[in-house]
Amino acid sequence: MTTTQSDPSLRATVLTAPATFSTTPAESPRPGVGDVLVRVAETGLCGSDVTMYLGRHPVNRPPLTLGHEFHGELLSAGEGTSARPGDAVAVFPALSCGECASCRRGATNLCPDMGIIGAQRPGALAGVVTVPAASVLPIDPATPPGLRVLIEPLAVALHAVNRAGPVAGRRCAVLGAGAIGTLVALVLRHRGAEAVHRIDTDGHKLSLVDTGIARHGDGRPLAEVLGGEHGELDVVLDCVGSAELAGQSLGAVRPGGTVVLVGVQHGAFSLDGVALQRGERAVLGVQLYVLADFTEAMRLLAGEPLFSGLPESLIRRNAVGDVAEVFDRLARGVSTHLKETIVFAGKENPC
């Protein structure tokens, strides 16, 4: 059991209700059995954070201490981790029981009791967090400090592409040019996809990273955007989470093709059963990632130029005191950067 002690300098930022944050004095956590203590350096904010912020997430609702894409400094170590106090660490935020059938076969992301640090447990906006010892992974010093916050979203992208199966030589489309969509496109390119079409209504975001062929959708139906490619794609990865796009995507893949739903879906939607069945097309869901995806993301950011060479200017860093403003910007869709983050060491670049 975790015990606490008073620390007047420690403050936690909590989402107390939809679109409402409260910053209050917090108790300084002491790690209990099996836990360690991490001082957060930076946390990224993503689409699922925004759905929780708006109170629209299908599972996680306020009150919440958000922040699951984070790295920091290990303050105390215990059994179950190779990290040592003072190490720079990334935190694998997924929680699972370790005993169910899914966990036993390595599919911890499918655990019935699956949770996440930043929802079921307090996340990075607490500033200092207790996490399971097995969840902290030492960061390779070769990893550019300014890109370490991309470890978790890159793990999402890797798991999404893994769900699609082998992509070398295949024709693919990625819907959405946010952080996940862009990283998915980079993973496809890294793994030898023949063509990668990127589609988004935001031409600026499409221009931020050169990942191959980019097409600006302008909100038109997918078939119209793809033109001659309609029905000839092998894989479409929907990183938006739109019910309408899910249906359009099915018609955009050839017989035998695959649609991968990466973005958070918000309920029921309809698909063309004839196209699904008679074309033997597949529609696959994506739920987070597993540890192997996370460690591969760490490896790629430490040594693969396609990833480790990404410009840090893609990331807008913000002070923790500006968290409400940042979430409002993300909720309104007016961020001009690939990734918005919160930093805890005074190294923000709000420009």
From TrEMBL:
Pfam family, one: Glu_dehyd_C
Cofactor section: Zn(2+)
InterPro entries, alphabetized: ADH-like_N, Glu_dehyd_C, GroES-like_sf, NAD(P)-bd_dom_sf, Zn_alcohol_dh
Domain Alcohol dehydrogenase-like N-terminal: 34-140
Keywords from the UniProt entry: Metal-binding, Oxidoreductase, Zinc
Domain of life (superkingdom): Bacteria
Segments of this protein annotated with the region Disordered: 1-33
Lineage: Bacteria, Bacillati, Actinomycetota, Actinomycetes, Pseudonocardiales
Stated name of the protein: Zinc-binding dehydrogenase
Residue span(s) of domain Glucose dehydrogenase C-terminal: 149-285
Species of provenance: Prauserella endophytica
Endoplasmic reticulum among keywords: no
